[in-house]
Amino acid sequence: MKKFIKNAALLWAFLAVTTMSIAQSNYGKTVFIPTKTLNNGVKMPALGFGTLELNDSVGINSVAKAISLGYRLFDTATIYGNEEAVGKGIKKSGIDRKKLFISTKLWVSDMGYENTKKAFERSLKKLGVDYLDMYLIHRPHGDVQGSWKAMEELYKEGKIRAIGVSNFDSVQLADLMAKAEIKPAVNQIELNPFFQQPKMQRMIEKFGVQVEGWSPFAQGRNGLFTNKVLVEIGKKYNKTAAQVTLRWLIQRGIIVIPRTSNPAYMKENLNVFDFKLNKSDMQKIAALDKKTSQFPEWN
Ligand SMILES: NC(=O)c1ccc[n+]([C@@H]2O[C@H](COP(=O)([O-])OP(=O)(O)OC[C@H]3O[C@@H](n4cnc5c(N)ncnc54)[C@H](OP(=O)(O)O)[C@@H]3O)[C@@H](O)[C@H]2O)c1
To answer: Which atom of ligand 1 is nearest to the CA of 77?
Structure first.
């Protein structure tokens, strides 16, 4: 009888552990995304999910799907008009909000001390959260100092875990660094194989600021997904041009935020931590640099 009870207990323990690990992998916990430590000690995932153009139901479903697959960093902006959809996607996923890194941006028309405070509250409400992991000044226009002062206060009140900027060149960043009480943690700039900005990266990093790259695929412009060099390199590792591109940025120490509404691409873009590009691969990709923004219409 004693032996039977012991065996039954062992069987129960085995089943419990097995069920738990299956449930974990279904929830995407088996995906390993490394983190970067920002200059204030906050940890940020090295790879996240971009949300530009993912509006309404597409936005809601894409965000919920991405969370189920293992994405934890979400990049949105007031000007994308989808903070509400991102918030609904988060709710739909059922995940504990504290497990996410939610980042949004202050738009040009909201610059200045008072406007920034109001815009921040609007973003929180739309996202359905009571704090942000990161808040960025979207573009270096208007009253940067006033906005920064407001963001510093919100940071000190514990309403934002990290504050930063986007599209700042080295002069604009240096100017802000000189006047700021709290240094920017991140500068989000355009970075892809056709616009590599190595000098800009070095200058930003010299200030102790983490570089985050937007439009890693240049939205597919210039035939990025069929580029011969990227495809050939990918063949060696059984990876696509998209995966090679993300890996190349990650190896440069850059945080990446690819965007897609296609679940197959979502999985593909996550699957970049099991191979390493060698020096010659890195050099071949460096030679693709056209040294010019792929989005001249935005400048
Ligand atoms: N701070 C700024 O000023 C700024 C500016 C631009 C962007 N951003 C941020 O950066 C994020 C990423 O940039 P982005 O949205 O401009 O473009 P992107 O990520 O460079 O490219 C998105 C395009 O790539 C396609 N794609 C994604 N994964 C793929 C894969 N594995 N294979 C083939 N195609 C793939 C998507 O296809 P589907 O359409 O089929 O999904 C979509 O058309 C944005 O979403 C936004 O969060 C910031």
So the answer is: 47
Question: Which ligand 1 atom sits closest to the C-alpha of 214?
Answer: 10
Q: Which of 71, 80, 135, 155 is catalytic?
A: 80
User: How would you list the strands of the sheet with 186-190, edge to edge?
Assistant: 49-50, 73-75, 101-106, 132-137, 160-166, 186-190, 210-214, 255-256
Ligand 1 centroid to residue 244 C-alpha, Å:
15
Prediction pTM value: 0.92
User: Any idea what the Cα angle at residue 103 is, between residues 52 and 178, rounded to 5°?
Assistant: 115
Residue of minimum CA distance from atom 12 in ligand 1: 215
How far CA 143 is from CA of 66, 111, 148, 151, 164, in Å, comes to 35, 6, 9, 12, 15
What are the b/e assignments for 127-158, b being 16+ CB within 10 Å? bebebbbbbbbbbbebebeebbbbbebbbeee
- pLDDT (average), residues 121-128: 98
27 classed as catalytic: no
Please give the distance, rounded to the nearest whole angstrom, from the Cα atom of residue 257 to the centre of ligand 1.
Answer: 8
Domains in the chain (CATH in brackets) are 34-292 (3.20.20.100)
- Evaluated on CA atoms 245, 251, 252, 258, the torsion sign reads positive
Please say if the pLDDT value at position 174 is more than 60: yes
Q: What is the CB < 6 Å shell around ligand 1?
A: 50-52, 75, 166-167, 188, 214-220, 225, 242, 257-262, 265, 268-269
Residue 9 pLDDT exceeds 80: no
Mean pLDDT of 53-77: 98
Q: CB–CB of 167/140 below 8 Å?
A: yes
Q: How far apart are CA 209 and CA 46, in angstroms?
A: 14
